[in-house]
Amino acid sequence: MNRKLILFICLVFNLGFIAKAQPYCDFIKKVREYQNSIKVNEHSGDEYQMPEVDTTSFDINVYMSLFDKLKLKAGKKVFLVNRYSKDSGKPVLCVQDSTFNMDKFVDEITTKRFRHIDSLVEQLKSEFLNKNYPEEKINVLERFREFQKKSFTRNSALIQYAIDSSRRVCNNLIPEDTPTGYLQYLFFNQMGEQFALFWHAHSLEKTVLCDKEDVKYFLSHYNERKVYFEYEENEIRELLNIDISPVVELDSTNCSIVWYEIHTHKGIYKNTYTIERTYPFRVKSEASEKIATISTLFFY
After folding, report:
1. Per-residue pLDDT at 178
2. What is the pLDDT of residue 3?
């Protein structure tokens, strides 16, 4: 075959592949850009208030609209729960039925919690009195009671609601039956709550590497933080020489997705997932190949 013709065919094939993969990367970068813009209100001066997502930088409806190939199950609405402590935390995205009485749920959980606190304090107080502990030590129990009740907020009750995995947004989504639909579904499943991470939660931070620009960014990122991270620079740099765009393939029953994930405190992996093309659209991790190791040189 004519050499020029072969080159032309190869060029057309590569351009077609790039054009096919580009919307995946455009989507991932758009979501990641929004995620990176979301801030955390730390409330460091208030002993009773936990950190929370800054609602001036996060709108759940805007965020969900970025996943335009996904839809919620009928009759569901989304809301955010702040799952934070004083040294760690992340947001949790949940759904509730439109008929669900959330105020009643919160009241029931709060009442149950307060009864538990009162019962515990009264039990300890009785023990302290029987042992003739000084009044000062008994008064500590009252301060403990007050602190526990003031610390238990509406969001504390919502955290109890969010413990049930069936109430998480990621388990209530229906993907469009297209490659883009399943890619968005997998991204939400794996990284939909990767924003507004606080302190220790950064150890679980991860995202998808899409192209050479992403690789260059993280090479620069770690180069500027060599005091804090040890990383296999040569192995990461090798990614500049290959196409790391996500690959999405459909067969009659499943969707297969291969992409490169960077876990910012652990390493880079080439991961393969399958998603069932029928309800409940289960996601399964099929393979994981470690490309490069990233280690922290610090302790939280």
Report:
1. 97
2. 54
Distance CA 210, CA 21 (A): 9
What's the pLDDT score for residue 12? 36
pLDDT of res. 15 = 38
Residues of the chain below pLDDT 50: 4-19
CA distance 237 to 239: 5
Q: What is the pLDDT of residues 139-153, one digit of tens each?
A: 999 999 999 999 999
As a whole number of angstroms, the distance between CA 34 and CA 31 comes to 5
Taking residue 32's Cβ as centre, other Cβ atoms within 10 Å add up to 18
